[in-house]
Design brief:
alpha+beta; Nuclear Transport Factor 2, Chain: A; Glutaredoxin; 2 domains; 4-stranded antiparallel sheet; 18% strand; elongated; disordered N terminus; DsbC family protein; signal; Thioredoxin-like_fold; DiS-bond_isomerase_DsbC/G_N; Thiol:disulfide_interchange
Length: 238
C-alpha cells in the first residue's frame, strides 16, 4: 500500500521528460530535410499538393524532395489546367524579397511607370551595358543599390563611395557607369554617413541573395544579368 503513491509520483515527474526525449530523437521531415541539405540556405520549406513531397526554396530556385525515397526532383509542378505552381511560388518569393526594401536609400533615377530595382557593381561591364540601355528609356523609375565586388574590381569600392559622396548621386552614377573615371584620378569623401549607407547597400544585396551583377527586379519580375530580351519583354508587356 505504501508503494503506490511513490509510483504515481514517478509517473507524474518523469512522463513529460519521456515525451520530450521522444520528440528530440524523432525529428520531423522538415528537420530531416535541413539536415540533408546543409550546404544551402533554405528560404522556404513546406509540403506540396503531392502527398509526401516537399518544396525547398533557395537562391531564386525551387526544387522538390521526397524524404521517403530520398529523391530530389528538379522541374515544375503543373496543375491539370497547365498552371505552373512552381512559377507561382517563385513570383511569391520575389514579392517577399523586394516588398520591404528601403527604396529611400537607393539612388533613384527617372520617373517612369515601370519600377526597376537594380543591384549593381560600378565596374561590372554588364552593369554598364544595362545602364546604357536604361539611359535611353523614359518609362522607368530605377532604384539602384551598389554592391562593389572588389575581388574582381578593386576600384569598385572607391567608385561606389564617389557616387554616394556626390551632391547629385544620379549624375555621379551615370558618370561612373559611363566609364568616364576609369582612367582619371578622383577623390572621395570621408563621411561616416556615406560609409554606413554603402554598408547598407551591401547588406541589402546580400539579403536579396545576389550572387552576381547586375541583378534586377522589373515590376517585381526577377532578371539575372544583362538579359535584354527578357528586360524588353517585361517593359513592353509581351
Amino acid at each position: 500500500m505504501r508503494s503506490r503513491p511513490l509510483l504515481v509520483m514517478f509517473v507524474v515527474l518523469f512522463y513529460p521528460l519521456q515525451l520530450f526525449a521522444e520528440v528530440e530523437t524523432k525529428p520531423d521531415d522538415e528537420e530531416l530535410i535541413r539536415i540533408r541539405f546543409p550546404e544551402i540556405t533554405i528560404e522556404g520549406l513546406g509540403k506540396t499538393e503531392i502527398d509526401g513531397l516537399y518544396e525547398i526554396a533557395f537562391e531564386e530556385k525551387i526544387v522538390y524532395y521526397h524524404p521517403q525515397s530520398g529523391l530530389t526532383i528538379v522541374g515544375e509542378i503543373l496543375t491539370k489546367d497547365g498552371i505552373s505552381l512552381t512559377a507561382r511560388k517563385k513570383a511569391e518569393m520575389t514579392a517577399d524579397r523586394i516588398k520591404n526594401l528601403p527604396l529611400e536609400k537607393a539612388i533613384r533615377i527617372g520617373n517612369g511607370k515601370h519600377t526597376v530595382i537594380e543591384v549593381v557593381d560600378p565596374d561590372c561591364p554588364f552593369c554598364r551595358k544595362t545602364a546604357a540601355f536604361f539611359r535611353k528609356r523614359s518609362d522607368v523609375t530605377r532604384y539602384v543599390f551598389l554592391l562593389p565586388i572588389t575581388e574582381i574590381h578593386p576600384e569598385a569600392e572607391r567608385k561606389s563611395r564617389y557616387i554616394l559622396c556626390a551632391p547629385d548621386r544620379k549624375l555621379a552614377y551615370e558618370e561612373v557607369l559611363s566609364g568616364r573615371l576609369d582612367h582619371e584620378a578622383f577623390e572621395t569623401c570621408e563621411d561616416a554617413a556615406v560609409s554606413e549607407l554603402l554598408e547598407e547597400h551591401k547588406r541589402i544585396g546580400r539579403r536579396l541573395g545576389v550572387r552576381g551583377t547586375p541583378t534586377m527586379w522589373i515590376d517585381g519580375e526577377f532578371v539575372s544579368g544583362a538579359d535584354f530580351k527578357k528586360i524588353a519583354r517585361i517593359l513592353e508587356g509581351n
